Amino acid sequence: MRQVVVIALNTFRENLRDKILYNLLFFALLLIGFSVLLADLTIMEHQKIVTDMGLAAINLVGVIIAIFVGIGLVSKEIERRTVYTIMARPISRTQFILGKYLGLMFTLLVNVLIMLAVYLATLAVYRAPVHWALLQAIELIFVELLLVTALALFFSTFSTSTLSAIMTLGFYVIGHLTTDLKGIAQKNHSEAVQAVMTGLYYLCPNLEMLNMKGQAAMGTSVALSYQAWASAYGLLYAALLISAACAVFQRRDF
Amino acid sequence: MDAILVEELTKKFRSGWPWLPPVTALAGLSLSVHKGEIYGFLGPNGAGKTTTLKILLSLMRATSGKVEMLGKPAGDLKVRRRIGFLPESPYFYDYLTADEFLAFYGHLDGLERAELGRRIDHLLEVVGLSEARTRQLRKFSKGMLQRVGLAQALIHDPELVILDEPMSGLDPLGRKHVRDLILGLRDQGKTVFFSTHIIPDVEMICDRVGIIVKGKLLASGRVDELVSNGHTQSVEIVCEGINADEVPSITALATRVLQRGRHCLVALPGPDQLDEVLAMIRARGGRLVSVTPQKGSLEELFFKQDDMTVGMRSDTKV
Ligand SMILES: Nc1ncnc2c1ncn2[C@@H]1O[C@H](COP(=O)(O)OP(=O)(O)OP(=O)(O)O)[C@@H](O)[C@H]1O
Ligand SMILES: [Mg+2]
Q1: Chain A closest CA to B79's CA: distance in Å?
Q2: What is the pLDDT of residues A119-151, one digit of tens each?
Q3: Where residue B11 sits, what CATH number does that domain have?
């Protein structure tokens, strides 16, 4: 366990010293700021625009960090051959993967909290109501980020960075369309299309389950039991991906 | 119990394309390293040195064969606590300072704080990086990286130290430092196993050497044994005042005669003809400048095998 923590802390430190992260964070703040500007320019409900766009910004920037830091998490260590000296230590490969994942998880948590703070401040300025549903939405966004990170990590254990990024992005997009996939499968007459769509439906994580930004912006919260189930679903999916990543990594020659 | 035991180790790499045959990097390598000795693992580029070390550290899986370190099969996590490793042309987390870098490895090895602080101070001193301890590794030169890599391998005071080309990238003074460091480790009773393709590195400090060519151990034993092992030592004479290449009785005995201005170099196959040739030189009014026995056998062993290595001869002799 100590080994996992050592790797996680070092990964967190690596992220902190990476300029990309600050750029992205800056981008998030810019987006939130932009929502304010947009709200002033339009005749629509100011408060709703700010509420909506803030959530979207947190989600978007979080996903970008999860994908782009996630794919490099382990593959960069292999490419730069920094694994050699680490794997020569009394640490198992599974502990290494868990540590890397935990480190990025911590980075994401800190980032989401910073963005949340700015978001809440913006809402306060606009006197927009801070509904409990907003926090629910952000918790589920965080679960989604954990899942996307796990996807990126999983792909990067056996393919190149570019390919991993594309596949993670693909799964992310399809993951938000799974309900549509099922619809297509039911309506389409071609059996091949039906099989592919049904396959994708079951294979891809159902990310829409974790998306309640729309409702939250309207101030409609969901039942706690739903939130618990959705979180459990996302975390379980992430856990499966991480286990698979460990299994692949275990077999690798460096 | 040996510090390292390798038996019939083979490693084949799949070639990426199914129609190409696999690359055999190790073809039945066996060797053993005794406790407390410095063992030099000598071989030309591509011989399989790095592959062997990676299998020892279980960074790589062998195709077949047996590997033991300190009496435990490779991959045993506990035993890694007692082993230090420096990979070939090492790459490290470049966003860390030398201090943080060593602390990171110390934590992985489970050193406690006070002990770790002491070890870091000591090792930075030993490798001569005390001045640069708060500098990020991205600002380190190649030789400095090699040194901090050595410090990393020693941070937990391991019993067995495995180094892949520890002197590469170092200037002559740096090489000497590393040699002294390795000798110092042996004085403390540690075992050192290091790979190199540079013969003088091995001749000077190793208790025993193993010579690997094309994935097989060609010879192994004590350096002096290998050097004298049935090989006649060639001798080079440098003289002045005569043109030896115009003396048929000398050219008949010599393997090579070179005239360089006033100086003349006569290479003899062994010491037996030395007196005779010296007498001839003197008889013709030549003056002796030097006689150098050529300790060629390690090199001969090394180069005997294949043509690929011939090209290296020139740069290893300097
Ligand atoms: N990952 C790999 N995939 C395919 N072939 C490899 C791989 N690693 C090494 N080889 C091959 O195995 C052989 C031995 O390589 P190795 O790196 O062990 O040599 P070496 O003795 O360390 O050489 P050098 O002195 O240049 O470091 C070479 O022919 C090399 O091409
Ligand atoms: Mg090598």
Answers
A1: 8
A2: 898 888 877 788 888 899 999 999 999 999 999
A3: 3.40.50.300
How many A from CA of B195 to the centre of ligand 2?
A: 8
Q: How many domains does chain B have?
A: 2
Is B317 within the bounds of a domain?
no
B81 lies in the same domain as B168: yes
Beta bridge pairs of residue B293: B235
* CA separation for the pair B110, A6 (Å, rounded): 10
Mean pLDDT computed over B146-155? 93
Do B57 and B165 belong together in one domain?
A: yes
Nearest to B25 by CA among B195, B214, B165, B197: B214
| Closest by Cα among A164, A162, A189, A125 to A245 | A164
Pocket test for ligand 1, best of B49, B86, B201 (most atoms within 8 A of CB): B49
Mark whether B143 and B171 lie in a shared domain: yes
Q: Are residues B56 and B159 in the same domain?
A: yes
The pLDDT value recorded for residue A13 is 93
Inter-chain CB proximity A88 and B80 less than 8 Å: yes
Task: Please determine, for residue B311, whether its predicted confidence score (pLDDT) is greater than 50.
Answer: no
Please list every protein residue whose CB sits less than 6 Å from any atom of ligand 1.
Answer: B 13, 23, 25, 43, 45-51, 88, 197
Region of residue B217 (left: phi > 0; alpha: psi -120 to 50; beta: else): beta
Min CA distance, B234 vs chain A (Å)? 43
Helix/strand/coil for A34:
helix
Residue B306's domain comprises 4-227+302-312
Q: Tell me, what's the ipTM?
A: 0.85
Name which of A252, A210, A214 is nearest A233 in CA terms: A210
- Looking at the structure, tell me whether residues B249 and B136 fall in a common domain: no
Q: Kindly report which listed range (A213-227, B26-40, B227-241) carries the lowest average pLDDT score.
A: B227-241
Counting one residue from chain A and one from chain B, the pairs whose CB atoms sit within 8 A come to 72
Whether A84 sits inside 8 A of B93 (CB atoms) is no
Ligand 2 (single-atom ion) residues, CB below 5 Å: B 49-50, 88
Residues B290 and B196 in one domain: no
As a whole-number percent, the residues of chain B with pLDDT over 90 amount to 45
For B23-79, how does the pLDDT look when each residue is reduced to its tens digit (9 = 90+)? 899 999 999 999 999 999 998 888 999 999 999 999 999 999 999 999 999 888 899
pLDDT for B195 equals 94
- Show me where the domains of chain A are located: 2-176+211-251
Do A172 and A148 meet the contact criterion of CB atoms below 8 Å apart? yes
Note the pLDDT of residue B186.
93
Name the residue of chain A whose CA is nearest to B151's CA: A85
In a domain, B74, yes or no: yes
Q: What pLDDT, on a 0 to 100 scale, did the predictor assign at position B106?
A: 94
Measured in Å, residue B43 CA sits from the centre of ligand 2 at 9
pLDDT higher than threshold 70 for residue B305: no
Q: Give the 3-state secondary structure of residue B289.
A: strand
**B9 & B150 share domain:** yes
Model confidence pTM above 0.95: no
User: One-letter amino acid identity for A147?
Assistant: L
Do B146 and B238 lie in a common domain?
no
Atom of ligand 1 nearest to the CA of B44: 25
CB B124 within 8 A of CB B151: yes
Mean pLDDT of chain B: 86
